[in-house]
Amino acid sequence: MRPSPPSRLLRHGFRCLARARSARALHPRGDVWAGTVLRHGLSPVTGVPWIDAPGRDSALVRLSRGAGLPPPWPDVLGLALRVRSPGGDPWDLLLSTTLGRRVPWPRRAPEGGVHSSIAAFRAPAGPLLVGARFRGGRFLLAVAAPRGPWRPFAELVLQEQVDVDVTFEPVLNPPTGLVVPDGWRRLREPAYAGSREGRGA
Alpha-carbon distance 51 to 139, whole Å? Predict the structure, then answer.
């Protein structure tokens, strides 16, 4: 299927921005950390095994600033998380600081705010937002129905900064059971593709 004119325009715009920056179009600079996800599980279940079952995962985490503004300027803060599926495939999540759960919102630091997936994934038990809150030196991971309370299911502990170049693909590689909504996919796929092309990734 041929891409629509808006998709082609979006892809071109992100390609040009990434080329001009010689970096990602958005979240151009970030620090990558090795970490551990400690899952205590969740009940009632969501139908997503990674969320529902207790376990422990090694993780890569990228903390970034959306527009690339230097501190102490406020910016939309990003948290990209990668763990591995039982089969070894990457599972990626991208969360950003928000006002409420849906509106990207600039902050100076992660303390006191919520990182959210912004769009609700389709999950077996119904739509789910994924979120994180920085507390006590670690991130508390949680899920919520669009109008329900946050329900913590894990803690993310950052251990050490690592020198690796990793490209997260939250549209292509969501955890099994979390389906990216079609509208969000149509918006993000050309944007990510253009950004990759612009920086030669």
Answer: 15
